């Protein structure tokens, strides 16, 4: 018979209180850079446990500082705090109390999980099991605001010198309580484009007197799909999606302009450079062929999230120790984006996921639809809190283990 894990047993005992905290955060979601209540709740909780905090990095970011021993080594553990601008369809007791704001991605759960690890980490440092500093990074504005970048601009890595940083995200559909990680790229870059085609308006009955931007847009949409099919190497990956098309005000008027918007995603900067260049060439060339002209804008939001080999290998070993090899899975990279990528451009580390299950954990009163990320019927699985916290503790104990004299 295996010996029970005393840390996990203690975390399980704390689960009701941690669940209440998570559900309080869920009921009071805050959007990017507006996480005032959330960051205050995080900071005051840490301070109540005797853990020093740094406030205000990235406007509303909070960092808990746990020091042990005398080593200058440092390790960052990150949780995001912001919600999404969408209306929740669940009606259970902890559903959002603010229409148009919802924790539909589990950042409330990530925050609660890292908080759950705080006291065990504090106790491990006091007991001499950590030689170095653990930085608990509670980050704002992951959902499009680039909160990781803003924390760095405010001096995160200067004020909190760390040798590596790790980030966790829950993953619906993955078996509950399992972990998954992959080497190299795991999330894609996120980029937006906007194209305005300028033609010449005319009566719909007299198209020869105008320059119709609508067929130019149609040709351009089709041409964009050839970039990945015929310019990007088949073994590379890219996605070009035109998601918005705006033109015209009346059915009998040929408009003088047409607007296209959409996104581009890739796992490498080289592929992204190629796609942007070809999009611009096609837009300008096709418009010129029709006698029109265009304004082309391309905005790069988040770079690809690329895990570092050594840090990923160590993380995989810790996962196997915590949940076993059979529950340590290989993550299939996604074309979604994550601003943890900015941290991994500056520091070694890895981004990984924790299985949220199939949605069976949701209480009565959940909305229709699957328990998927960014779905109005989503809810974080509170049973993951002790599992995730145990992983954070085990990872810190491996990274900051006292060195033999």
Brief summary of the model shown:
The chain has helices at 6-27, 36-48, 107-126, 147-153, 156-159, 213-230, 269-290, 309-323, 340-346, 384-399, and strands spanning 53-57, 61-68, 74-80, 132-139, 164-172, 179-181, 184-187, 190-198, 202-203, 238-247, 253-254, 257-266, 293-302, 305-307, 328-330, 349-357. The strands form four sheets. It has an eight-stranded mixed beta sheet with strand order 1-2-4-3-5-16-6-15, sandwiched between helices. A four-stranded antiparallel beta sheet has the order 10-12-8-13, covered by helices on one side. Strands 7-14 form a two-stranded antiparallel sheet.
Describe this structure in words.
By secondary structure, the chain is α/β, with parallel strands linked by helices. The chain has two domains: 6-187 and 304-399, 3-Layer(aba) Sandwich (Aminopeptidase); 190-302, Alpha-Beta Plaits. It is 36% helix and 25% strand. It has helices spanning 6-27, 36-48, 107-126, 147-153, 156-159, 213-230, 269-290, 309-323, 340-346, 384-399; strands at 53-57, 61-68, 74-80, 132-139, 164-172, 179-181, 184-187, 190-198, 202-203, 238-247, 253-254, 257-266, 293-302, 305-307, 328-330, 349-357. The strands form four sheets. An eight-stranded mixed beta sheet has the order 1-2-4-3-5-16-6-15, with helices on both faces. Strands 10-12-8-13 form a four-stranded antiparallel beta sheet, with helices on one face. A two-stranded antiparallel sheet has the order 7-14. Strand 3, helix 3 (107-126) and strand 4 form a beta-alpha-beta unit. Helix 1 packs across helix 10, helix 3 (107-126) packs across helix 10 and helix 8 (309-323) packs across helix 10. It is elongated and about 85 Å long. The protein starts with 5 loop residues before the first helix and ends in a 6-residue tail after the last helix. Residues 192-284 form the Peptidase M20 dimerisation domain. This is Amidohydrolase. Keywords: Hydrolase, Manganese, Metal-binding. One of its GO terms (molecular function) is metal ion binding. InterPro entries: Amidohydrolase, Bact_exopeptidase_dim_dom, Peptidase_M20, Peptidase_M20_dimer.
């Amino acid at each position: 018979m295996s010996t029970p894990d005393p840390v996990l047993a203690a975390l399980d005992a704390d689960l009701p209180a941690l669940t209440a905290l998570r559900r309080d955060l869920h009921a009071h979601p805050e959007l990017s850079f507006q996480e005032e209540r959330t960051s205050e709740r995080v900071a005051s909780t840490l301070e109540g446990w005797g853990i020093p905090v740094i406030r205000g990095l990235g406007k509303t970011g909070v960092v808990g500082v746990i020091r042990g021993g005398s080593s200058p080594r440092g390790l960052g553990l990150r949780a995001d705090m912001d919600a999404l601008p969408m209306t929740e369809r669940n009606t259970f007791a902890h559903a959002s109390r603010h229409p148009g704001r919802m924790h539909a991605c589990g950042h409330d759960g990530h925050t609660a999980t890292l908080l759950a690890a705080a006291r065990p980490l504090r106790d491990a440092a006091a007991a001499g099991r950590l030689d170095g500093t653990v930085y608990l990074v509670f980050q704002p504005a992951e959902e499009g605001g680039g909160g990781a970048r803003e924390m760095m601009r405010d001096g995160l890595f200067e004020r909190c010198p760390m040798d590596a940083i790790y980030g966790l995200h829950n993953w619906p559909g993955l078996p509950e309580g399992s972990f998954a990680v992959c080497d190299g790229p795991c999330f894609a870059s996120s980029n937006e484009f906007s194209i305005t085609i300028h033609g010449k308006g005319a009566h719909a009955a007299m198209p020869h007197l105008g320059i119709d931007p609508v067929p130019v847009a149609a040709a351009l949409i089709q041409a964009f799909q050839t970039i990945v099919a015929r310019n990007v190497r088949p073994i590379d990956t890219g996605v070009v999606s035109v998601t918005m098309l705006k033109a015209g005000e009346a059915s009998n008027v040929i408009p003088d302009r047409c607007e296209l918007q959409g996104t581009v995603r890739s796992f490498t900067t080289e592929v992204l450079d190629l796609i942007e260049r070809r999009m611009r060439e096609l837009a300008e060339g096709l418009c010129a062929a029709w006698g029109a002209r265009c304004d082309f804008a391309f905005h790069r939001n988040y770079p690809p999230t690329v895990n570092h080999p050594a840090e990923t290998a160590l993380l995989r070993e810790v996962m196997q120790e915590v949940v076993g090899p059979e529950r340590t899975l290989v993550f299939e990279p996604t074309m979604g984006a994550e601003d943890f990528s900015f941290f991994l451009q500056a520091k070694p580390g890895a981004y990984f996921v924790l299985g949220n299950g199939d949605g069976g954990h949701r209480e009565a009163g959940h909305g229709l639809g699957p328990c998927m990320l960014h779905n109005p019927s989503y809810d974080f699985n509170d049973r993951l809190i002790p599992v995730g916290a145990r992983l954070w503790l085990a990872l810190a104990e491996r990274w900051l283990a006292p060195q033999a004299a």
